[in-house]
Amino acid sequence: MSYIPIDSSAASSSTHQRPTNDPAWTAAGMNSNNSTPRPRAPHSASILDGVQHKVEGFLDKNSGQLPMYKDKPYPSALSRRFRRWSSKRTLAILAALLLLLMYWNGAFTGSKNSVWSFYGLGVPEERADWGKRRQEVVKAFELSWDSYAANGWGECCFDEYHPIAKTGKKMAPQGMGWIIIDAIDTMILMGLGSRVDQAREWLQNTLTWDQDQDVNVFETTIRMLGGLLSAHYLSTEFPDMAPTTNKDPTLYLNKARDLADRLLGAYDSASGLPYASINLQTRKGIESHVDDGASSTAEVATLQLEMKYLSFLTGNTTFWERAERIMEILDNNGAEDGLVPIFVYATTGKFRGDNIRLGSRGDSYYEYLIKQFLQTNVKEMVYKDMWDETLAGIKKHLITYSQPTGFTVLAEKPNGIKASLSPKMDHLVCFLPGTIALATTGGMPEWKARGMRWWTKKQDEDMQLARELTQTCWGMYKVMATGLAAEITYFNVDVKKPPPYDPDHVMVPDSVFKDTSAEASWRADFDVHPTDKHNLQRPETVESLFYMWRITGEPKYREWGWEMFRSFVNHTAVSNQGGFTSLGNADRVPPQPRDNMESFWLAETLKYFYLLFSPRTLLPLNDIVLNTEAHPFPRFDMGSKFKTGWTRRPRDADGHVVGAESEVEEKKKLGGAAVQGGKLAVEADKTV
Question: Where does Ca(2+) bind (predicted)?
Answer without folding.
Answer: 628
